[in-house]
Amino acid sequence: MPVEEFDVVVAGGGPAGSTLAALVAMQGHRVLLLEKEVFPRYQIGESLLPSTVHGVCRMLGVTEELAEAGFPIKRGGTFRWGARPEPWTFSFAVSPKMTGPTSFAYQVERARFDEILLRNARRKGVEVREGRAVTGVIEGDERVTGLRYTDPDGAEREVYARFVVDASGNKSRLYNSVGGTRNYSEFFRSLALFGYFENGKRLPAPYSGNILSVAFDSGWFWYIPLSDTMTSVGAVVRREDADKIQGDREQALKALIAECPLISEYLADARRITTGRYGELRVRKDYSYHQTSFWRPGMILVGDAACFVDPVFSSGVHLATYSALLAARSINSVLADDLDEKTALTEFEARYRREYGVFYEFLVSFYEMNVNEESYFWQAKKVTNNKRTELESFVELIGGVSSGEAALAASGRIAERSAEFAAAVDQMASSDDGNMVPMFKSHVVKQVMQEGGQVQMKAVLGADAEPELPIFPGGLVVSPDGMKWLPYRPA
Ligand code: FAD
Predict the structure, then answer these.
(1) Structural domain tally of the chain?
(2) Whole-model pTM?
(3) Is the Cβ–Cβ distance between 336 and 261 less than 8 Å?
(4) Interface TM-score (ipTM) > 0.90
(5) Distance from the alpha carbon of residue 405 to the mean position of ligand 1, in angstroms
(6) Domain shared by 43 and 113, yes or no
(7) Per-residue pLDDT reduced to its tens digit, 391-418
(8) A Gene Ontology molecular-function term (predicted)?
(9) How far apart are CA 130 and CA 209, in angstroms?
(10) E strand or H helix at 487, and its extent?
């Protein structure tokens, strides 16, 4: 068999792999994507963020297809969490009654969503081969030069490429070939037990598509509407309570639901789905980690292959697709001979780590709220003598020492670039909406939302988006079409 060669070969056809493959193929490069399963296949991670739906997916050209798929519209989140005994709601929109162009996301059956992205990659020119398990990388003198994989008939194959991308997710071990180590979070060590229900209760309109997250003694529940009648329900249980999900999973989930009055109420008339794709009760653990290196010459990690942190803020698909966009820009720049590999991939890694860091730090503060039952918020307010609410004082205290000034400065630049988006966030912050919890008016949360807004604005404005500044000295900026990096040249 002749030696096969591509510009890029991607392992894994989840959101990270199909996004990266499509964005590179759209620049005219030859891309092979190898996926172990035959789609549609099951995956967890159903609650999306607006930056994925309106940012990366718009760049991919699947906005219409997603709209036509009929996925439930997620306007924000509803939480029974922290000091408040009552559920509270935040909305992506300035006004929850008005839907702006980027003020919602979708709750998706991942089998359908991932298939849309994978088929789109094929339409964009990617050679997609399903039923092919990648077994290892091929190393040259100083770089990774290709992949080994198994065909459906069991035959071993080799393929060579300028870049190998590991987008094979959480379970594959391919990431080891990039070097460094996978550091598991000491803080986020929970386990998740999850399944699917028919006929669960819905939140009242206009929030019926929201994710509902409910803290209880052993951890927290997600409750995600996936259709008018089907709901994804998962218990995220603290490591100390891991024994509660040992043994019979059906009994374990029942017992956990019984511990949580709000979820019990929502599932009072529901029945668990016990057949088909959604019939299994599944467990996941050890899912919060980051790799110490995200690339080496010839090889790049994106999505869960590189890092993931706790699902409470639904950041997984966002990080997967955003990292794919960052890596695609680097690859496109190198393949076009615009930049050398080190410069391009240093930019990818810096931006990816910053985005991961913003979520990580934010989540740590969010969990402290839950873990500390004597109201950490009250303590933060007392220590800082802050005139704001207790909850807001806590978030701002943590924010001052967490994600750092680069991200804060970046949000300022985004605000300059996009008066519309900044005004929307500010308006939300000053909103009198009684459902809007004070925390979502804090600077830290505004910053996170503005980070997400960067990708959205790029997609909305396209070539009309104003040029941005580098995020670190000597760093690069995004090309007007969003597909590559450019050296920064001050006007
Ligand atoms: P994946 O989606 O895992 O895709 C990887 C692909 O690679 C798969 O199709 C797999 O078959 C393929 N593959 C694996 N090995 C090989 C191989 N050797 N050769 C070829 N192909 C291979 N995220 C959210 O955004 N919202 C949520 O609500 C959410 N909830 C979550 C709840 C839990 C309990 C957990 C653990 C995660 C959750 N996530 C959530 C995270 C989300 O599941 C992931 O971040 C996301 O799926 C990552 O996408 P990916 O493309 O990197 O990997």
Answers:
(1) 3
(2) 0.86
(3) no
(4) yes
(5) 31
(6) yes
(7) 443 333 222 212 221 222 223 233 333 3
(8) monooxygenase activity
(9) 32
(10) strand 485-487
